[in-house]
Amino acid sequence: MRKFIFVTGGVVSSVGKGITTACLGRLLKDRGRKVTIQKIDPYLNVDAGTMSPFQHGEVFVTDDGAETDLDLGHYERFVDLNLTRLSNVTSGQVYGAVIEKERAGEYLGKTVQVIPHLTDEIKSRIRGVGEQDKAEVVICEIGGTVGDIEGQPFLEAIRQMRRELGPENTLFIHVTLIPYVGPSGESKTKPTQHSVRELRNIGIQPDILLCRSKRPLTKEMRDKISLFCDVSPEAVIEGLDTDSVYELPLIFEKQGFGGLVADRLGIDGKPDHSEWEQVVSRVRKPSHRVTVAMVGKYMALQDSYISVTEAIKHGGIANDAEVEVRRVDSEEIEKHGPEKLLEGISGIVVPGGYGDRGVEGKIQAIRHCRENKIPFLGLCLGMQCAVIEFARHVCGWEDAHSAEFSDSTKHPVLHLMPDQEGVTDKGATQRLGAYPMRILPGTRARKIYGSARASERHRHRYEVNNEFRDGLEDKGLVISGVSPDGRLVELIELPDHPFFLASQFHPEFKSRPNRAHPLFAEFVKAALGQGK
Ligand code: GLN
Question: Are 22 and 78 within 8 A, CB to CB?
Answer without folding.
Answer: yes
